[in-house]
Amino acid sequence: MKFRGISKTFSTVGEKQYETIGAFWDELSGVYGRENLRGLGYHWTETSIAYAIGLIDGDIEGSNTEVMLPDDQWECVSGRTEQLGEIYTGIYRDGPLQYEIEMFDDEGNCKILYYRESMS
């Protein structure tokens, strides 16, 4: 699967990424509508995350990245956006991720697909 989008790097120090990535979402939601977007978290370091936002269908204007993603073995969690920190605490209990794909709606719901490389 190929993900195309507008990518930026965000600090994860003090969990600031929730606020700064949220502002990135708000900016692009104003143009495309929140329910038409999906966000990809990838390339984590000790202090940062690369994060791209693209359209669910089609290519977003200004795309500056293309990431090849696995086609299967994704896990899925749904919940409320205001509980995102708690949701990720549960996801990370089993170890670091290689990729995450987030989708949100204007009613405060979120869906997270995540991929963790198998240790076998």
Topology:
Elements: E1 2-11, H1 17-32, E2 37-42, E3 48-55, E4 65-68, E5 75-80, H2 84-92, E6 99-104, E7 109-115
Antiparallel strand pairs: 1-3, 1-4, 2-3, 2-6, 5-7, 6-7
Top keywords for this entry?
single chain; about 120 residues; alpha+beta; seven-stranded antiparallel β-sheet; 7 strands; globular
Notes on the structure:
By secondary structure, the protein is an alpha+beta fold. A seven-stranded antiparallel beta sheet has the order 4-1-3-2-6-7-5, covered by helices on one side. The chain contains two helices and seven strands, in the order E-H-E-E-E-E-H-E-E. It is globular and about 35 Å long. A hairpin with a 4-residue loop joins strand 6 and strand 7 (109-115).
Radius of gyration: 14 Å
Instruction: Report the strand count.
Output: 7
Mean pLDDT: 94
Low-confidence stretches: none
- Largest beta-sheet details: 7 strands, antiparallel
* Proportion of residues in β-strands: 35-45%
Kindly state the percentage of residues in helix. Answer: 10-25%
Number of helices: 2
Q: Write down the secondary-structure element order.
A: EHEEEEHEE
Going across the major beta sheet, what is the strand order?
4-1-3-2-6-7-5
What is the first-to-last residue Cα distance? 23 Å
